[in-house]
Design goal:
Order of helices and strands: EHEEHEHEEEEEH
Number of helices: 4
Largest sheet: 9 strands, antiparallel
Radius of gyration: 16 Å
CATH superfamily: ACT domain
Distance between the termini: 17 Å
Structural class: alpha+beta
CATH topology: Alpha-Beta Plaits
Helix content: 25-40%
Shape: globular
């Protein structure tokens, strides 16, 4: 057994965006571009997978994913989640969010989401943030888990995630270890 220090896995940063209007999307993309340039974007789709945000954000929401030209250790997703929370607060109106911005990471074998909500399948990463492996790459696609949100199971996200995975493999340091597979 190797007892050398653990090196956190690397991941390509992405953001899942839910918004009602173009103003909210433009605000979030400006903030994201301040971290690093957006390099991959999904098409915009209706966010009609659930009515979870209806009371807070209204109806006819839109969904989009964007990634930035940045690869980081997975544990640094915690800091990005706190930035995203602050952006959401800046656009709050009458105590309700008008946008939802969830950072995550995509690498060669998984999609990781970070959240403030604890649940049985999530692990505590620190500073009030939990991590979830929501998709695992098996065969030729990212496979959902029992807890994977429906929008992350969509063809549009699969296409986006595969593009991010390809870019991750091209850009990650070649000598950096990847996570083990079964």
């Amino acid at each position: 057994m190797d007892n050398s220090p653990f090196i956190p896995a690397l991941t390509k940063v992405f953001f899942g965006l839910i918004y009602k209007d173009r103003e909210g999307l433009e605000y979030l993309t400006r903030k994201i571009n301040q971290i690093e340039k957006i390099d991959i974007q999904s098409n915009e789709i209706p966010f009609d997978f659930t009515d979870y945000y209806k009371d807070e954000m209204g109806e006819f929401l839109k969904r989009k994913w964007v990634s930035i030209d940045k690869i980081i250790p997975e544990n640094e997703l915690v800091d990005l989640k706190h930035k995203a929370i602050s952006w959401e607060k800046e656009l709050t109106f009458e105590g309700k969010r008008t946008v939802n911005c969830d950072p995550g990471g995509i690498c060669d074998n998984r999609v990781v989401l970070v959240t403030t909500k604890n649940f049985s399948h999530r692990i505590y990463l620190g500073n009030g943030i939990f991590g979830e492996v929501t998709l695992i790459y098996i065969g030729d696609k990212f496979q959902p888990q029992k807890w994977t949100y429906p929008d992350y199971q969509s063809d549009i996200f699969q296409e986006f995630a595969k593009s991010c995975k390809k870019k991750f493999l091209e850009e990650k340091p070649q000598d950096y270890p990847t996570a083990h597979r079964n």
